[in-house]
Design goal:
By secondary structure, this protein is α/β, with parallel strands linked by helices. Helix content is 37%, strand content 13%. It binds pyridoxal-5'-phosphate.
C-alpha cells in the first residue's frame, strides 16, 4: 500500500463546528485523508476525558485528567488506526489485510476486519503475546501466525508477507494512515478541555506512533490557527523496554536495539519503528522521557482501578505510572495534565490488581459473613 502524504489547506474551517452527535473520529474528516463515516460499522473515537476526583486527591494533582481510550470497540487506541486503514483498504478493493502486533493492534484489526468483511492475517511474537488476546483475535475469525522471535521479527515477516501475497498492510509504522488516525486523540483532548491545549501530556511508547501522532495533531491545530502552543509531552516506557528513555538520558542521537523484559506487552518493543519520530516530537515540545518499572505499572493499575473504577492493562496504565513518578512536578492547580489510558484490562486478566479486594468462602451463611468481617 502506498498512501500519499496528505496536504491540507490549514484553517479553522477544518475543525468541526458542532459537538459530537455520535460520529466519533469521523467528525475530524477535514483533517483526515479518508472519510469513513457511513462506511465503518463500529463506533470509534469520541472517548471520554475523565476528571477523577479521587485520583486527583490521592496524587495531589488537581489538574489531572485521563483520556479514556479503553472505551473503544476493542478497548484500545488502536481502533482509530484500524478504522482508517480498513476504510482505505476497502476503497482500494482489498480483500485481505495484515498486521504485526504486540496484541492490541491485532485484536482491533480482527474485529474491524470481521465487521467490514475482509480476511485478517496477524503476526505475533509467540514469546510475548497474551494467550487471551490470541483467543480474542480468533473469536473474530482472524488467522494468527505465531512467530518464533520478538515483535520486531513478526513485524518484518508481516511486511514481507504483504509484498508476497498482495495483502493490504496495516503495520503501524509502515502505513502512514495509522499516524493520521491516532492524531485525532489530540484533537479530542483539545476540544474536551474547552478548545485549550493541556500543559503536559503523558503518553505510553512502544513503537512511538501514538506519541508522534499526538504531537502531530497538536501541530495541526496550531496550523489551523485554533491553538498557539504545544503541550509538553512526556514519553513513558517500561524500564525493561526503554531504548528511547536511555537515548534521551544519554543525549545520544540513536539507540541500540534492546532485548526486552516487561509485563506491559503493548510497549514491549526494543527497537521502535517510529523511535526517531517520537524522540524528535518530544524534543519539539520541550518535553522529556521517563521509565517505569513493572511494580510502578502494577501500582498505577491498582490506583486507576480503586480511585476511578477504570481497569487498564499494564501498557494502558503506563502514562499514569509516569504521572505518579513525576507527582512532585504536577501539583499546581492551574496546570492541566493529561494521561492517556491506552488499553483496557478486560482483554488480558493476567495482571489484574486483585489484591485490592478479597473473596471469602462463607459456606452459604450469614455467620460466614460475620466471621469474614469481624473474625467472630
Ligand atoms: C495499550 C497500549 N498502549 C500503548 C501502546 C504503544 O503504542 P505505540 O506502539 O504507538 O507507541 C500500545 C501498542 O500496542 C498498546 O497496545
Amino acid at each position: 500500500v502506498v498512501v500519499e502524504p496528505q496536504r491540507y489547506e490549514y484553517g479553522p474551517e477544518l475543525i468541526p463546528a458542532t459537538a459530537d452527535s455520535g460520529e466519533g473520529m469521523w467528525r475530524w474528516r477535514g483533517l483526515l485523508p479518508v472519510d469513513g463515516s457511513g462506511m465503518y460499522p463500529l463506533k470509534v473515537g469520541g472517548t471520554p476525558l475523565v476528571a477523577s476526583r479521587r485520583l486527583r486527591q490521592q496524587l495531589g494533582a488537581p489538574g489531572l485528567v485521563l483520556k479514556d481510550e479503553t472505551r473503544t470497540p476493542t478497548g484500545s487506541n488502536k481502533d482509530r488506526a484500524t478504522a482508517l486503514c480498513l476504510v482505505d483498504a476497502a476503497s482500494r478493493g482489498a480483500t485481505a489485510i495484515a498486521c504485526a502486533s504486540s496484541g492490541n493492534v491485532a485484536c482491533s484489526l480482527a474485529a474491524g476486519a470481521a465487521a467490514m468483511g475482509l480476511a485478517a492475517y496477524i503476526f505475533v511474537s509467540a514469546r510475548t503475546v497474551s494467550p487471551a488476546k490470541v483467543d480474542f483475535m480468533r473469536s473474530f475469525g482472524a488467522t494468527v501466525f505465531l512467530v518464533d522471535g520478538p515483535y520486531e521479527r513478526a513485524y518484518r515477516l508481516c511486511d514481507d508477507a504483504c509484498e508476497r501475497f498482495d495483502w493490504y498492510n496495516r503495520n503501524t509504522a509502515t502505513n502512514p494512515l495509522a499516524l493520521q488516525a491516532k492524531k485525532t486523540v489530540a484533537f479530542e483532548v483539545w476540544e474536551q478541555l474547552g478548545r485549550k491545549m493541556p500543559d503536559v501530556v503523558y503518553l505510553p511508547v512502544g513503537d512511538g506512533v501514538t506519541l508522534a501522532a499526538y504531537v502531530h495533531g497538536c501541530e495541526e491545530l496550531i496550523r489551523c490557527g485554533v491553538a498557539d502552543r504545544l503541550p509538553r509531552v512526556v514519553g513513558v516506557q517500561a524500564s525493561g523496554a526503554a531504548p528511547l528513555v536511555r537515548t534521551f538520558e544519554a543525549g545520544c542521537a540513536a539507540w541500540e536495539a534492546e532485548t526486552t523484559r516487561t509485563i506491559a506487552d503493548g510497549i514491549d518493543v526494543g527497537d521502535p519503528y517510529f523511535g526517531r519520530q517520537a524522540l524528535d516530537a518530544v524534543a519539539r515540545t520541550g518535553g522529556s522521557w521517563v521509565a517505569v518499572t513493572d511494580d510502578d505499572l502494577r501500582t498505577a493499575m491498582a490506583t486507576l482501578a480503586r480511585t476511578s473504577g477504570l481497569l487498564a492493562e499494564p501498557a494502558g496504565a503506563a502514562a499514569l505510572a509516569g504521572v505518579i513518578a513525576h507527582r512532585e512536578q504536577i501539583t499546581a492547580p492551574d496546570q492541566t495534565v493529561v494521561a492517556l489510558v491506552s488499553g483496557t484490562g478486560l482483554k488480558d486478566q493476567r495482571w489484574l490488581p486483585r489484591e485490592g479486594g478479597r473473596s471469602v468462602d462463607i459456606a452459604a451463611s450469614l455467620e460466614g459473613v460475620e466471621r469474614a468481617l469481624w473474625g467472630t
